[in-house]
Amino acid sequence: MQLYLPIAELSVNALIFLGMGGAVGFLSGMFGVGGGFLMTPLLIFSGIPPAVAVATEANQIIASSVSGSLVHWRRGAVDIKMGLILLSGGVIGSFAGVSIFTQLKQIGQVDLLISLAYVIFLSIIGSLMLIESIRAILRTRTGTNPERRHSGQHSWILGLPFRVRFRKSRIYISIIPPFVIGACVGVLAAIMGVGGGFIMVPAMIYLLRMPTNVVIGTSLFQIIFVTSLVTILHSVENQTVDIVLALILMAGGVIGAQFGARVGHKLRGEQLRALLAVLVLVVCGRILIDLVIEPEELFQITSVIGRGH
Amino acid sequence: MPRTTGFSMRALIHMLAVPWFIATADVVYAQEELVTDLSHHQVSIQSNFTGAELLLFGAINVNTNAKHDIVIVVRGPDSPAIVRQKEKVAGIWINYGARELTNVPGYYSVISTRVTSEIASQTVLEHYGIGLENLQLRSSDDDDAGPLHDFIEATKRIRLENSLYSEDENGIQFLGTSLFRASIEMPANVPDGRYTARVYLFSNGKIMQTQTSTLFVNKVGFERLVFDFANKQPLTYGVIAVLIAIFAGWFASAIFRGR
Question: What is the residue range of B161's domain?
Fold first, then answer.
């Protein structure tokens, strides 16, 4: 079923993109991750201009974060106060990110920016996840108990000023670390077309020492608003949000996530994480190869009015 | 006769039967007439758009035995374009050099009865901009010709690859002695705008007649609406995109919650 995408200005097979949305939705439902860091590269690999892929994916993430966070909201697992601090950082980060994006787009380096951001973050996250999950698998095999984490905070974080009590998370910390984390995630959302949960969740657990039960709900809460802002900023600055493509991805993603969540319950956590880590590294490797090997066509045309090829 | 490849058998028979076609050129010129039109003057880009095929048809009225040729040049809207060249820097391929070309047609197609270099001299072809090698692309940047030439060649090569540019040296079919037709093919990625289809009637390397038709390629309906909305009211567009996504997320959650 051929469909013309009005913003990407391409005629594509809608069923392929519906399937892609479904496959990534399935994986994100299974692993409990947002899926933006898989979807944006996939869109780029399939010929969508990178700037359109990033902005459109930000738009899709809103939908998956809304349906995800509603579940946590009903359980009362959202720390709104923490969410708002993260969000205030996120707002600053989004503006900065879109501004960097727009400037690099004008000098023709935005594709490079996106690729490099992906290679750096996917290689770090993928390797850490793989090492961690292999260790966990080995531990269960040898039968040793997982070591208990120290519950104390890092001393330098304790020493920071502007401390505030977060009742829901039962912590009393400075607002500077969550603000900075939020800002970093905002920049990544704008540049990479991701929600940033893969950075925010570990940061909240290990740096802020938040209890795990409120971490995902709070991060989704922040992601809804940050990706909304990123979508609007990209629309205004770059006109790269393709609502038709976003709707196809949303439809596929929602259905895929439901099935993925069911399969995810039946599989073991460590093996699932190892699988995801491998997937992340494969995507990272593919982007790296595209950067390193000599392209067949060294030239590229950009129409100044409208987008070119 | 290499130029008969791709012709229908009927057209071939017609052509062999045409006396002017094989006649020599030592004749007095009478008044030639050329009448042409397009099958449609409007190409609409809708959601199911996968490209378009237009028919250009026409008739020549020649009273001479001279050999005649038809050349059709279809040209899309000119726009400035930035062409970038990748170079290897610190192990990765990045956009390095760039030139801005000021007048790059979004679409350029030449259809002729035979190879254009056999139809007219290089001077004539160059003057009228007939053929991809005679398509003059200019740059606003001060530059030595050598590197600029690479950028111009690359532009033509890439557009040729994307089917936005094309040359078909036997794309014109004659039906009888005076009627002819040619099909103009446009890929799915044709740009919006005003196109001109110029038909040249050549004889003995000289242009005897010219006819120009105009056609428009436009996004219409939903595609037009979305594209205009995104470009003219980007803030409202962004807000609506967000609201749609929020609704979609809530809707999905409402459906699957009940199960």
Answer: 25-242
Residue B217 has pLDDT above 80, yes or no: yes
Contacts for A95 with CB less than 8 Å, ≥ 6 apart: A186, A233
Reported as type and span, the H/E element at residue A302 is strand A299-303
pLDDT digit string, tens, across residues A143-157: 765 555 555 556 677
Whether B245 sits inside 8 A of A233 (CB atoms) is no
Distance, CA of B155 to CA of B163 (rounded, Å): 12
Q: How far is B192 from chain A (nearest CA, A)?
A: 9
Total domain count for chain B? Answer: 1
Look at A70 and B249 and tell me if their CB atoms are within 8 Å: yes
Which of A236, A239, A299 comes nearest B85 by C-beta?
A299
Q: Which of A109, A258, A309 sits opposite B256 (nearest CB)?
A: A258
From start to end of chain B, where are the E strands? 33-38, 42-45, 52-61, 68-75, 78-89, 92-105, 108-112, 165-168, 172-175, 179-186, 193-203, 206-219
CATH of the domain at B226: 2.60.40.1930
SS3 (DSSP) at A81: helix
Dig out the tokens for B112 from the structure: 């002729």
Could you tell me the pTM of the whole model? 0.83
CB contact under 8 A, B253 and A241: no
Contacts (Cβ under 8 Å, ≥6 apart) of A282: none
Assess if residue B2 is contained within a domain: no
pLDDT at A13: 93
Q: How far is A254 from chain B (nearest CA, A)?
A: 7
Q: Do B238 and A305 touch (CB under 8 A)?
A: no
What is the number of CB-based contacts under 8 A between chain A and chain B? Answer: 193
